[in-house]
Amino acid sequence: MLSRTGTRACLSVGRRRIPTSLRHTLSNTRVNDIKSCPITTIATQQQHVHSTYTNTSTTNSRRSFATKSPKTSHTNEELATLSRAIEQNNIIQTRKSFSLLRSSPNDRALIDRPMIQKVLMLVRKGQKQSDLAFVRDLVETMQHDFNIRPELFEYHALMYAYGIHERPQDASNVLKRMTQMPEKDIYPNTVTYNILLGCYKRVNDYETALRLFEEMERKKNIKHDLVTYNTLLHFVPAPKALELYVQMQKEKIQPDGYTYSTILSVATREKNSTIGNSVYKNLLSNPKLVKDTITVNSLLAFKANQPDAGLNGVLDLYYRIPKRFPHIKMDVASYNIMLDTCLKYDNPGRAFMIFDDLKSSGCTPDVVTYGTLMDAEARQKNMKGALSLFDDMTYRNITPNARVLSSLANLASQETDSQLLSRVCDIIPKYSHDFRLDTKAYNGLLSGLAKHGRSAQAQTLYDEVFRHNAREADIATFTNLMLAYINDDQLDDAMDIYYELREHCQNAEPGQARITLDTTFYTSLISAMTALSSRQRKQQHNDLNTPSSVPSYAFMVEEKPDNSVENLDGTSQPNLLRALTLFNDMRRLLIRPNAHVYTAMLNACAKYRDAYALEQIHRLIRMDLYFDPDTAVYNALMDAYNHCGDGHVVLQLWDILMLSSAPKIAIDQATISVVLDSCGHNGYSHKAHGIWRKVKRVGFDLNTNNYNSYIECLCRQKGRQGWEEARRVVLDEMRAPSAIHDPRPPFEEKTLNTLIGFARKKEFKQEEVDELEQWKQQLLS
Questions:
Q1: Which residues, 6+ apart, have CB-to-CB distance to 160 below 8 Å?
Q2: Model confidence pLDDT, tens digit, residues 151-171
Q3: Is 285 within 8 Å of 27 (Cβ atoms)?
Q4: CA 431 centroid distance within chain
Q5: Are the C-beta atoms of 303 and 284 separated by less than 8 Å?
Q6: Which CATH class for the 518-665 domain?
Q7: What sign results for the dihedral spanned by CA atoms 212, 218, 221, 224?
Q8: Is the pLDDT of residue 93 over 70?
């Protein structure tokens, strides 16, 4: 049956209800009644066989059926039982009753060809080995036991039975036997080859099937027909299926609905718009060709994968289907295709409207439905919505699959609510015992725990999944485990894991290491090591509330031959020392630092105001032949020197950027704010005037942050003159937040608070300060 997994699944041709023209080709679907099986034109053949048989010399022996004997009553009862068993498709009883009749010489005379054919028609479909043995024995012994010579019908039944039991070679041997007895007037025909093609389809041996297809072309009295092509189209590779469809048209064999449905799915998968559009139009213009929901789903899937259709084009077809094909009712797979399409076009709102249609239609959503909707919630980072869908799914007794649990785990990696994260941590172990989630899913869960600093839970999860469950961890697994300890302020434990991991990688034989330390690994750890925890932020507020007294270092540091940060005196902050350890290891392992690593190290130097470490990092940046710093790195470098009190170095870096014509290091708004902040904090306000005039003269797009930095810089000048100039800038060069049509940048409350704060610091009269507060309220209102 066509897999119910949304648009992608509908692109593959799955087993389904086989049409009349294909039922003998051994699909897993059931073929119940004799009339619907086209192994031969059975009605005609049975009449022919029966009329022929009744004129043979065996007619006199059959007349004993009408004579009276002690066993007549028993015989009639067994015949009636056999007939009922055949009508009820009861293979076991059919075999039993037939064997009882066959065991008696008198009753054996009652068995004729039509009866044998009815028995074979039923038992050939049996799944048991004893069913196959029964069919084979009956065909091989019927002439001896019943004086009835096997004909095409009986050999076809035996080949079919071999196909059911996935023994195509034995079926092929039957065909060879048929070709070797022309004296019996038995010649294979197209139906014979079609049945054999079905046998190879059963085992998915398309190569042998195609050779058989070519053999048919070489036979004089055997031609391809609709069944031949439908059988092959069902399981050959997609490009070959399209070739066969073209050949079918050249042979002027009229396709049926099944052909069109199969080819449309293949064309969708192969993105063949030429054939796909042709079939699509044929089906829409001939509703009678659309026999089942599978074909409708193929139409939806094809339309959903047309780049020029868009969501509106697919929705148009979706809403036309009830009127165009009133005899077809969409199933849950139809709605799953639409849900997947809405997700593809990033329209989760429409997806939930389709979900309402599904429930209104009476269809029952399945795990694919909920998985798709949970993906829609995941795109919106809505963990509450995803868990609500999960609760609804379990309320309907739908067991979640790996996709659902993986979606929750991946969503957990971004979750900020600790309680929702805890729910996911409880759900996944409860349901994941039935199947094996991939490492990526567990890494997502570890990532969520790491962000919240829940190291104990992360360690427990690692032990259960990777240490004791023989699942292979990757570099992301260890990264998240270490981040959990770092964010839990257990840095020594994180470093213990690192040292063990580093030792494993160094001692592994070449090509044998399962884990490779890479740039992403070091970038993540260094960024986490240098980020301030909540406890450290409080400590920094207490220790660094006053301007730094760290001595300045010259811009042109001494060049050293080594490529590591050494000779630190131990006064650096512990987190920064650990980050420097990682940084040095990274360079020794010949892993090139990228812009993120350098930026993280520079930001740490700025946070901890470590001028010596900053000098070393700056030296390494200039010595790194494989690294060209971009504007973001220059901004971080300037900011670090600003926090360390080296304002003149900031100005030198500014001059380098202004003189450079390389677009990679073109100044941006952040650069301007950094240099202005540095001028204000380090006593270079006179330089700020020239910088401000220059950027305004060249027409640089200045934002509110730039103005705030310049205003603060002016206010830091001694006396009142700079403050007055700052107030003038606010009045003349900025606009009120409500004046949205004014092209000037808007001032904000922070801007006005800066003016008022420095007015108090400069000991303005209280009346002036009060007037400034009223002025602020007027401007903001």
A1: 24, 26, 39, 124, 125, 171, 195, 198, 199
A2: 999 999 999 999 999 999 999
A3: no
A4: 20
A5: no
A6: mainly alpha
A7: positive
A8: yes
DSSP 18: P
Token couple for 282: 């044929």
The predicted structure's pLDDT at residue 532: 58
Name the CATH topology of 399-516: 1.25.40
Tokens for 459?
Answer: 């360690």
Which pair of structure tokens corresponds to residue 161?
A: 């039975």
567/268 Cα distance (integer angstroms): 65
| Alpha-carbon distance values, 575 to 535, 592, 653 (Å) | 13, 22, 27
The long-range contacts involving 240-245, CB below 8 angstroms and separated by at least 24 positions, are 240/206, 240/210, 241/266, 242/266, 242/267, 242/270, 242/272, 242/275, 245/275
| Ramachandran area for residue 89 (φ above 0: left; ψ -120 to 50: alpha; else beta) | left
| Paired tokens of 692 | 């401000």
459 pLDDT more than 90: yes
Compute, in degrees rounded to 10, the torsion defined by CA atoms 416, 417, 418, 423. -120
Measuring CA to CA, how many Å separate 576 from each of 275, 495, 504, 644? 63, 13, 25, 15
pLDDT in the model for residue 538 = 47
Residue extents of the structural domains in the chain: 399-516, 518-665, 667-781
> Which secondary-structure segment (H or E) carries 755?
helix 749-761
Report the pLDDT value the prediction gives residue 539, as an integer from 0 to 100: 52
Instruction: Characterise 180 by phi-psi region: left (phi > 0), alpha (psi -120 to 50), beta (else).
Output: alpha
Do 399-516 and 518-665 show the same overall fold? yes
C-alpha to C-alpha distance for 296 and 265, rounded to whole angstroms: 11
Q: What is the DSSP letter of 735?
A: B
517 three-class SS: coil
- Give the mean model confidence (pLDDT) for residues 449-469: 92
Tokens standing for 400?
């979640």
Q: What contacts 24+ positions apart, CB below 8 Å, involve 553-557?
A: 553/611, 553/612, 553/614, 553/615, 553/644, 553/646, 555/646, 555/648, 555/649, 555/652, 557/615, 557/618, 557/619
Amino acid sitting at position 344: K
Nearest-angstrom CA–CA distance, 741 and 302: 48
Q: Which two tokens stand for residue 737?
A: 């937040």
Percent of the chain residues topping a pLDDT of 70 = 84
| Cβ contact 427:460 at 8 Å | no
Tell me the three state secondary structure of residue 746.
strand
Tokens of 191: 């139906």
CB atoms within 10 A of CB 564: 15
Any residues with CB less than 8 A from the CB of 348 and at least 6 apart, and which?
A: 342, 376, 377, 379, 380
pLDDT at 7 over 60: no
Average pLDDT over residues 755-759: 94
* Alpha carbon distance 693, 713 (integer Å): 14
